[in-house]
Amino acid sequence: MGERIILILLLVLSFNFLLLAVAQDVNSDFAVLKSLRGSWLSPTPNWEGSDPCKDWEGIKCKNSRVISISLSDIGLTGHLSGDIGSLSELEILDLSYNRGLTGSLPQEIGNLKKLLKLVLVGCGFTGRIPDEIGFLEQLVFLSLNSNNFVGPIPPSIGNLSNLTWLDLADNQLDGSIPVSSGTTSGLDMLQKTLHFHLGKNRLSGEIPPKLFSSKMTLIHVIFYSNKLVGSIPETLGLVKSLTLVRFENNSLNGYVPQTLSNLTNVTDLLLSNNKLQGALPNLTGMNSLKYLDLSNNSFDKSDFPLWLSNLKNLTTLQMESVDLNGNIPVNLFSLAYLQNVVLNNNNLGGTLDIGTNNRKHLKLVNLKSNSIQDFEQQNDLPENITIILESNPICTETGAMERSYCKKHNILDTEPQNKCPPDSCSRDQILSPKCICGYPITGTLTFRAPSYFEWRDTTSLEKHLLQEFQSHDLPVDSVSLIISDPFHSFVYTIQIFPRGQDRFDRQDKSTISSILGNLSATSPYDFITGNQGPKESTNSSSKVLIIRVAVGGSSVMLVLLVLAGVYAFCQKRRAERAISRSNPFGNWDPNKSNCGTPQLKAARQFSFKEIKKYTNNFSQDNDIGSGGYGKVYRGTLPSGQVVAIKRAQRESKQGGLEFKAEIELLSRVHHKNLVSLVGFCFEREEQMLVYEFVPNGTLKDALTGESGIVLSWSRRLKVALGAARGLAYLHEHADPPIIHRDIKSNNILLNENYTAKVSDFGLSKSILDDEKDYVSTQVKGTMGYLDPDYYTSQKLTEKSDVYSFGVLILELITARKPIERGKYIVKVVRSTIDKTKDLYGLHKIIDPAICSGSTLEGFEKFVDLAMECVEDSGADRPAMSDVVKEIEDMLQSVGMHLTSESVTSTTSSHRYQEVSIVSFHLDQPYSNESFGSSAEHIQKLNLVS
Length: 945
What we know:
- By secondary structure, this protein is an alpha/beta fold.
- Among the domains are: 109 residues, Ribonuclease Inhibitor (Leucine-rich repeat, LRR (right-handed beta-alpha superhelix), Alpha-Beta Horseshoe); 99 residues, 2-Layer Sandwich (Alpha-Beta Plaits), CATH 3.30.70; 105 residues, Phosphorylase Kinase, domain 1, CATH 3.30.200; 227 residues, Orthogonal Bundle (Transferase(Phosphotransferase), domain 1).
- It is 21% helix and 19% strand.
- It is built from 14 helices and 51 strands.
- The strands form twelve sheets. The chain has a 15-stranded mixed β-sheet, with no helix packed on it. The protein has a six-stranded parallel β-sheet with strand order 10-12-14-16-18-20, with no helix packed on it. Strands 36-40-41-39-38-37 form a six-stranded mixed β-sheet, covered by helices on one side.
- A hairpin with a 2-residue loop joins strand 2 and strand 3.
- Helix 1 runs parallel beside helix 4, helix 8 packs antiparallel against helix 10 and helix 8 runs antiparallel to helix 13.
- The radius of gyration is 31 Å and the shape is globular.
- It is a single-pass type I membrane protein.
- It is an enzyme of class 2 (transferase).
């Protein structure tokens, strides 16, 4: 009898251990997800209840195990915990477009042996790509583009034998392209891979000949905008499956291999802006070519290549600055699909004859700066064709400047597509193509294959995308696309407008971003967005799942309780460690925020309770302003100091590390033309900055009349001087120097004396000693103010601030938004200036408020300065210290004294005078902007709704 009892007890014990093992396996995913959630700051996904497989946001399961996490564009901030490696059944991980996800990619990612798809596009990850990524043997899709990864490409990626998509573009990766050796793997082993997207990095060295072979199935090789040197390997011609080859913007030299003629499927070949030598390559045989760009190389002087007329599918030919001579054969223009011929800066001469056979498709012939002496069709020029012969002998004849082809052209000067009435939207809203104000989702489409899309006619793609969204029952009313630079950057700003509401909710935004991201895998473009969606309040407290099992003996119950308790304790500790790692202020020491400069006053860390007290519990009476970032409250410290407390709303909060970086930066810059930081609060999921109180609001409010302030001409000059001095301090006197990166009228505040103060350092970047020439970063900024040189090269310098300052000057002159109803102010002024006329002929666009009763002394010099600042190339712009001197000299030369004031107010309400707004950073459209010859619209930057 006793033996039977013992046997029963052993069976019960074994059965309950089995139950516990199964329960732990099923619920280990629950614990891991809770730990992940704990490592993310607000907002966090809607994960409530004890079963992840029941209605948890972004989670899909199979057999009660998590197989997919898809949380695209919901505004996640924090880090990706190493606990992710415990989701042993995970097949898909997609956290794209959460720019607040920072820190390194954990090594534990290599534990996900069943992972098929890893998509982390447009996040803020830093550090090296871990070698453990090569352990993901089942991986098919790897997209880590548009982050801040550094270091070399891991050779272990060569072990991913099932990989079809490799996208590491738009990072800061350096070193050589890895190929296999006797002991290491390399990218040459990826025989199933269709896409090598490695552009916009810092890769150096030669392109290894071993990288390419006839066994490969590549269709896209994209290596543009790196630091690659040496020759293009002849082995490239072995990969006959290729359809797209892009090596532009490197330092490649040597001869172009004749083996390229074997690539009969290539439609787009871009080799521009290198140092390629020898004779122009003869590409006879590449009969699929549609887009060819060989511009800006060091080829030998040659006559116009006759073989070009045999490329029957050619649509765009670019051969700028390649020392071409002779005449252009008329049969070139007989190519059936030819649209664009860009041959400027050569020595082509004789008579231009475009014939009469292809007037249906031909749109542009740019022969600026050649030796053309005559034009056959000059009296019979079709309206649909733009001919540019500026700086040719034909345009030096008497009366030649009256001819359309001799005038200065901007190929993007087109009328707005809509005929909407004057903009009546609020300052944060944008007018849709259907003339409806709203907050669109905004991002960028960067075309990998430029031949795919006709930049003059965006209608077809807009309709296609609209139908795609509507097929998913999304409330999308319209889609708008705008090109920046059709022959170089291939970047379009996309704006997606909501239907029946002024903005999209978080779920709709996430779905739209996910759809565009998935379409990128099958269409010839990349979609990038940097917007952070609304953050929802969540309960971050851990919930422990209690397992109740009936057992038949007290000893068994005790064992089970002990095991369950140990398991719960370990899970709780793991979550606590994750949360601790994600809090950047865990070890905050304000005395270290001054970079070893004790005389500077440190930023004080206020508690939420203190802020509540200073603002009278955030009372309505203390509410002095608001914007897309949240609200600003007036507060009074115990010392009697009046402060402006900026409280971020959920959707505009930065990542914790970005917030900390802004605080540390502001703690060490002190200048009368910079807003001073008093302190901050980072508690209870709040982000608040405590600034000196600046009573007269933003320059933008003054220019639009919202603050009730009218600035005279002299005062505008002095505001410009103050802002310039603040910037010059950042560039030349801060240690280390600082680039602001978001200069705009909304970030210039006016104090009680209307002195300009530069504010909002959320995007600012310090320049370390090893980065004196430039800082390579992910492009950020605000639509309309963004430096085109920075956008195209990702090389950030002080001259990027100078460009933004130039736009600010034009805003002071015109009181217009940088981009208004599809018109970019830089383009408008540049095309309108006539230096032979009074006020340069700008009468129609000058702000009427400064013309009434004022003599605009120094106006022309001010305009000249603005145009110097907005030169397309940063090297052609002045330094901010030179800008300061020019404005000072300008004021003195016209007899203005820097102490004089000229400000009036149109209202007696003191409420306007108390608004102090220092906006939290929002990466705006682009979120960032119609583009002109400068990529001013572009923010990959960046996605806002």
